[in-house]
Amino acid sequence: RQEKIFFFFQAEDGIRDAQESRGLGDVYKRQVQDQDHKFDLAVHLGKVDEAFKIAKQEDSANKWKQLGDLALIQGKVKVAIQALEASEDLSGLLLIYSSLGMKDGLRKLAEKAQATTKTNVAFTCYFLLNDIDKCLEILIESKRLPEAALFAKTYCPSKISSVVDLWKQDIQKEHPITAQKIADPLDYPDEFSDLVMAAKVEQFIRGQRNSVDVPAHQYVEYNELLTQDFFKVLQEDPDQDLSQYSVIPEIKKQNPIFDLLKQHEQQGNEEEHFQDVDEPI
To answer: Is 177 strand, coil or helix?
Structure first.
């Protein structure tokens, strides 16, 4: 004769009911009435759908954040994005969007981060989007003018004069002597002759990069083109027309990696079919 084992669960109002021993996952819905406790158990058991229902009902930022982390661990990206958006976890969204190359998501996140003065997130988003002007704008708005001047010198030398002027005006009242010592590199072409060529390269690169989006599967080709030393070209011939060069590869809309994966998948299905046929009945 087979014996059955029963467990009795103690609740706040006494013994609720008896349940045959089948594990906590089968009984927690009936035994737990408190939503917070029920949500914690759902997260602990990895029940994303159940946790999602509770988070939607409660609309708690903390619950959405926990759900987002759980969904991300399980690879449920859509749920993770919805949860992190609801909890306004901008750093978590930055991780997802940047990892998956979601350009529209990054743009939307950048705008929201800038509006809520989350400048580090906004700056990173715009930098990944290659929006140098927006990066510079954020540094200026947040009064990080020394950094803005160095950023302009590195990435957009054509804007260095305007940034240096803002920097000097900002410290003029409290440190007038220091302000006088800050020089605009473009006012000294003999000492900073390379900046003129750098501005020319900047103009060329801007026109090229903003013309088309390069698919991720062509990164290797793109990277090789970007390593061309246009600065050296102009050093050898300052009058060289850079328009004969290109940093954009020929765009291939079809991803060859997807074709390869599809081919492997088909081969795997065929092998599975033959194994099933050969198995004894």
So the answer is: helix
Per the CB < 8 A criterion, the answer to whether 25 and 45 are in contact is yes
The partner residues of 11 in beta bridges, in order of sequence, read: 14
CA distance 214 to 103: 12
Strand intervals (E) in the chain:
6-11, 14-20
Contact indicator for 204, 243 with CB cutoff of 8 Å: yes
User: How many other C-beta atoms are found inside a 10 Å radius of the C-beta of residue 61?
Assistant: 13
Handedness of CA 165, 166, 167, 170 (dihedral sign): positive
Three-state secondary structure call for residue 215: coil
**DSSP secondary structure string for all residues of 93-143:** HHHHHHHHT-HHHHHHHHHHHHHTT-HHHHHHHHHHTT-HHHHHHHHHHTT
Write out pLDDT tens, residues 23-72: 555 554 555 567 888 889 999 999 999 999 999 998 889 999 999 999 99
Considering the entire predicted model, what is its pTM?
Answer: 0.72
Q: What are the counts of helices (DSSP H) followed by strands (DSSP E) for the chain?
A: 16, 2
The token duo for 167 is 């920097």
pLDDT for 155-195, tens place per residue? 999 899 999 999 999 998 889 899 888 888 888 877 887 88
Q: Are 199 and 234 in contact (CB under 8 A)?
A: no
- By the 10 Å C-beta count (0-12 exposed, 13-18 middle, 19+ buried), 259 is classed as exposed
pLDDT at 16: 45
3-state secondary structure (DSSP) of residue 43 = helix
CB atoms within 10 A of CB 101: 12
